[in-house]
Amino acid sequence: MTTHTTLTKSTIVAVALATTLSLSGCFANPIDQLTDKIGSGIAEEGAEKLIEGATGSDIDIDADGTMPEDFPDEVPIVDGNIEAAVGLTIDGQQTWTVTFIVDDARSSVNAARKTIVDAGFEESLWSDSYLIMGMFSNDAYQITVSAYADEDEQRVTYQVFETTTDE
Prior knowledge:
The protein has 4 helices and 7 strands; from the N terminus they run H-H-H-E-E-E-H-E-E-E-E.
């Protein structure tokens, strides 16, 4: 039953985030040409209320180039411009997703790998195929870092989850 509830909440969050990010200017769209920062703020606030109402969770969406205020200091991040950032609490567990626009996704994600491991996180997975991705953890957090690159876009995304213990 818990898996079904978590899957439902995750689906609601994903749909709302996709809608918000497309309307808030993180990705090119015709509506963006008709709106200004006020419109972006309304889209972010609307998505936050939608997710909070549907999941009973607390969420903070920032498409203005800032990190979530409660992003853990223990997690080293790459140099780059923040494209979008989301902080979310579901059933008492905090998660954060932050996407950076970088000059070179491959070198940035490799630098992220080194700084995360140097910060004391254990690497549990590294894939250097089409989608470069790594998973890391310590007693407090689990991190997934990935890179996306094509001729127009260079991005590194962090997903950070608080580690929970079953009691």
